[in-house]
Amino acid sequence: MRQALGDLMRMSRICRMIFATCLGSFILVIFYFQSMFQPVMRRNPFMVDGCCRKGSRNALQELYNPTQSDSSGAAVLHQARRDQVVDACRVYSASSRKRRVLTPADLKHLVVDEDHELIYCYVPKVACTNWKRVMMVLTGQGKYSDPMEIPSNKAHVPSNLKTLNQYTIAEINHRLKNYLKFLFVREPFERLVSAYRNKFTLKYNSSFHKRFGTRIIRRYRKNATQEALLSGSDVKFQEFVEYLVDPATQREGPLNEHWQTVYQLCHPCHIHYDLVGKYETLEEDANYVLGLIDVGDSLRFPSYAKSTRTTDAMTAQFFSNISSQQQVQLYQLYRMDFLMFNYSKPSQLRLD
């Protein structure tokens, strides 16, 4: 009996050791995945290993060690933007007790172009449809030549572009280290108004009306009509803002990608982006990216319809009916996007 009990205890210790070893290996993989992000924030981006196609320079090399002199000052501008992100993330990290470890599931917004060694993190309402079109041209092996020939709905079909979460951990690490990574951003409140106008004021977006509009009207509209409760097609901007700042919304899980923060979509405090383009200088910044991969005049970034875009004046008009308290709450929600990308605090806000 004593011997059997001893054997049982030894087996128990062995099982615990095996479990601890497996768990340790799993954690090691995760932290190795995270550690690839942290050092890259301060590494020399030109020191890449095995990054290039045979006998050629990739976009990452061309960015940090250009073959031609830059008379436009773009290199200085983009370095300042990178520094702004790093500084904002450092301040946030020092003041926050939260520690986040990324997993491959967090990388579903990072589109990969193997041929030109690019990674693009798409942000809805920041010209992402046209950028997806461009990426389809770049990765299509000659199937497409003109981005605007690609229907907008086709650009958003997930299977048409490969994203970073589809790779193994080792493959993810290699690409994060050796490919040029870029994203485009926009003034947060302007992006929010653009998302509202597109998803809640256009009749063809009935899926958003059903999924979000009905919920918003049910929660925040007193004496709502039965038609409004069923269709969700006439959500007011004030109701949309109330939904965003409601703690109950935060408890429901991540926000929809069209109004989720760039901080949460692209994780710029974990992933070092080599280029941060801005919607305000969209064509200039976009063609700078394309210039780094030397596509010449064969591919230019599509022009956009300025007559339909959401402007800062339009944004101010939408926010004129939003209470000061809700504006402050909304600013806090998007605060990291304001800080990381050097957007000024909205003039109407008074924050202590």
UniProtKB/TrEMBL annotation:
| PANTHER family found in the cross-reference section | CARBOHYDRATE SULFOTRANSFERASE (PTHR12137), CARBOHYDRATE SULFOTRANSFERASE 11 (PTHR12137:SF32)
Q: Which UniProt keywords apply?
A: Carbohydrate metabolism, Glycoprotein, Golgi apparatus, Membrane, Signal-anchor, Transferase, Transmembrane, Transmembrane helix
The record, for Pfam families, names: Sulfotransfer_2
Q: Name the InterPro entries on file.
A: Carb_sulfotrans_8-10, Sulfotransferase
What are the recorded GO MF terms, alphabetically? Answer: sulfotransferase activity
Residues passing through the membrane, by range: 14-33
Q: Which GO terms describe its biological process?
A: carbohydrate biosynthetic process; proteoglycan biosynthetic process
What family does the database annotate? Answer: Belongs to the sulfotransferase 2 family.
What's this protein's name?
Carbohydrate sulfotransferase
Localization, UniProt = Golgi apparatus membrane
Its record classes its membrane topology as:
Single-pass type II membrane protein
User: What would be one Gene Ontology cellular-component term for the protein?
Assistant: Golgi membrane
* Claim: Hydrolase is one of the keywords in the record: no
EC number, as in UniProt: 2.8.2.-
Q: Which domain of life is it from?
A: Eukaryota
- Predominant localisation class: Golgi
